Amino acid sequence: MYDEKFLRQAIELAQENVRNGGRPFGAVLVKDGEVIATGVNETNATHDITAHAELLAVRRANEQLQTPFLEGTEMYASGQPCPMCMAAMHSAKVGKIYFAYSYEQGQSYGLSSTDVLDELKKPIGEQVIDIQHKTIDVEEHPYELWADQK
Amino acid sequence: MYDEKFLRQAIELAQENVRNGGRPFGAVLVKDGEVIATGVNETNATHDITAHAELLAVRRANEQLQTPFLEGTEMYASGQPCPMCMAAMHSAKVGKIYFAYSYEQGQSYGLSSTDVLDELKKPIGEQVIDIQHKTIDVEEHPYELWADQK
Lengths: 150, 150
Known about the structure:
2 copies of one chain form a homodimer. Chain A is an alpha+beta fold. The first copy, chain A, contains 7 helices and 5 strands. At the A-B interface, helix 1, helix 3, helix 4, strand 4 and helix 6 of A face helix 1, helix 3, helix 4, strand 4 and helix 6 of B.
């Protein structure tokens, strides 16, 4: 259930991160009305392109709860989550997402993820990155190996 | 330029990971004909839903090269990268991607990312996760704060 105080907390994290030299994004992951993990964008500090606020909050919750799956959680994010974070949250089965500033509201600041999302929507042969499916012969198909061991 | 030995290495990493109790995915990131980072899927071992082979290889390359941007690199992945990893590689400006097994080839093993990709293609109001854009009044807009400090 939406509680504005958590979105306010995500925005405060974003503001604090800017004051610390980071990008203006914060995230708060909530379960049963309690904060279980938070994150800010750490890319400037660590060079890690994946160190987005939401992704870090998901990873910290995975570690804390000792499970990849986060059913029943709610992500409060200052900015509309990028496709990388959206895909991670779909895989983690995050229940709800609330965000304060949309891609559109970030556009004039260069803080929008529409470009990446537009790429992902294209067939792989038409994306900016050259992506090629290669055929290779191997003795043990890794998926067969995996299916045998399950 | 495509070199089959790196794709073979990615598949060998995937096979080895299965033998170690992991999922059948490996990745090798190459620059100027040299391997600069590798990864395997570590989700089973660490519970980290984001610990995909390609994402880990990207993060390790970010750390090693001390930059979020990986222009001129080529990712060799045993399986077709999921949308999370694709988005990360777009953001990191990875130059090329070669993969051995497509989503379609992984489908019968439950090793396909078409479900998540299908979600991302939908408008946010129609995705499985309930996603809501909330309006909130704050004194300092974090994007303005960021723009002022750049």
